[in-house]
Amino acid sequence: MDYIVLDMEWNQPWPGSPSARKVLPVQIRGEIIQIGAVRVTQDQQVADEFQVMIRPKYYRTLNRRVSKLTGIKESRLKAEGISFPEAMDRFRQWCGDDVVFLTWGFDDIGILRENLQLFGLPTDWINIWFNAQMMFNAQTDGSTAQKALKTAMEIFGIEATRPAHDALGDAYHTALICARLDLRRGMEEYAQALRSHDNGFHGAELPGCIGRKVFYDVADKHAALALMSGPENLCPTCGRQMLSSRWFAQAGHRYMDLATCPEHGKFLIRIRLSEQPDGLVRVSRLTYEATSEAADAYRTRVEKAEPERRSTRRRRRRRRTSVESVPEE
Q1: Same-domain check for residues 140 and 233
Q2: Dihedral of the CA atoms 85, 87, 88, 89 (nearest 10)?
Q3: Sign of CA dihedral 24, 167, 196, 205
Q4: How far are the Cα atoms of 60, 133, 187 from residue 174, in angstroms, in the given order?
Q5: Which pLDDT score is estimated for 141?
Q6: Which residues span the domain enclosing 280?
Q7: In this structure, are residues 33 and 10 in contact, taking their beta carbons and an 8 Å threshold?
Q8: Residues 122 and 116: beta-carbon distance below 8 Å
Q9: pTM attached to this predicted model
Q10: Are 17 and 50 within one domain?
Q11: Average pLDDT score over residue span 263-289
């Protein structure tokens, strides 16, 4: 069995652009434009490498932030990029059959699965994967906070010899870290490491938190929000179901809502969605007092949203008025 250390870069449409308004057959968070991978052998030796550039089919205009972060230019994608199905065929052949995937973070496999589904390609071959961050934490300081790749390299005294935010460069540096871990033990203890990580809520807790809980095996984002607004939206004082108001999205697949208990008043709810290895969703839920810093952030977001909502309503009224005023032929 080999370990395939995987890293990817993906393109995202600029908000409000025509690409952002495209309705795709499968909802994706980004379209993959580069894959980098490094093989770590069964005896934990860093071995051969794989890299491919992918020419995007749906989000063809490269987001300037993505280009600035990765250094990838549209000209390079046009010159070197191949189609996603061809890239996957090459990648699968390079990987071989008896492999386990390792990533630095939870996002890469989820993004890869979404892209495979978008192109109607099988996903079962990427089912066995582990987040090497969890193994690193469990075998070093035991913390629950997600560490940047650079931080982990510094802890192990690994000098950067490849560019950052390059798929192959990041995969190579991750492979050097993985080679210093006890990977077999890491896989055996992964479930416990993951539970510890969930209980720590990725270091995201703010002052005023009065409750925390983790939910597993939720179908998708919509089911998660419905669950958190419905049967699991319980008052931390009396246990009665609370009334949800409005979810606001935040960075990192996080959402917040101000819920109300008829007897005990308002509570701020923050959740974070993470993809499980089986493709289902894990929900980390935090409950805060209404006077907390987190609740203040919600009220600030509401104040910002009201002018946006009024502006949207005015634009809709103008469009209706414009249509109604067109004379009939």
Answers
A1: no
A2: 90
A3: negative
A4: 29, 10, 16
A5: 87
A6: 204-303
A7: yes
A8: yes
A9: 0.66
A10: yes
A11: 87
